Amino acid sequence: MKSYGNLELAEGSDIVNMTVATGTTLPATTANIAELFYKTGTAAGLYVYNGSSWTNLSLAASGGNTLSYAYQQSTASTTWNINHNLNTTNITYSFMVYVSSTLTPIMPSALSIIDANNITVTFSVAYTGTATIVGSLA
């Protein structure tokens, strides 16, 4: 079991209907450790607040402990089967889908960790878009 602030996740946990704030500028301060924010524009990516600063999870590779995988879903589908080959179930993720030709951040209806290399993502509507999967080996 991993704890992230008030959130505890066991291997194979599903996160359903999570909302992530977005914008072009990271919030100046926050009271919520492990809060997620999807930054658009320059230095875009999924960020997490560690209690004192924001860390870009897409760029967090340091000491070889963090890996990332970029996925492209080119055919609209309600189910995305993603083979990320990161060899870990300790992952974070972000999803961007096309809505009226605009790339928009979104959280899936459901996400299942199948094994250390595969996840299945479900949306309520068929989308095309991108996913960034970040895995920690620590």
Molecular structure report:
With 138 residues, the chain is mostly beta strands. Helix content is 0%, strand content 57%. The strands form three sheets. Strands 7, 8, 9, 10 and 11 form a five-stranded antiparallel beta sheet that branches. The model is unreliable at 1-6 and 59-63 (pLDDT under 50).
Low-confidence stretches: 1-6, 59-63
Number of domains: 1
Measured by DSSP, the beta-strand proportion falls in: over 45%
The ordered H/E elements are EEEEEEEEEEE
Helix content: under 10%
Structural class: mainly beta
List keywords for this structure.
138 residues, 4-stranded mixed sheet, 11 strands, mainly beta, 5-stranded antiparallel sheet, 57% strand, 0% helix
Offer a concise description of the structure.
The chain is built from no helices and eleven strands. With 138 residues, the chain is mainly β.
What's the SSE blueprint?
Elements (H helix, E strand, L loop, with lengths): L1 E3 L2 E3 L11 E3 L12 E4 L5 E5 L4 E3 L9 E18 L7 E9 L2 E5 L3 E6 L2 E19 L2
Parallel strand pairs: 3-4
Antiparallel strand pairs: 1-2, 4-5, 5-6, 7-11, 8-9, 8-11, 10-11
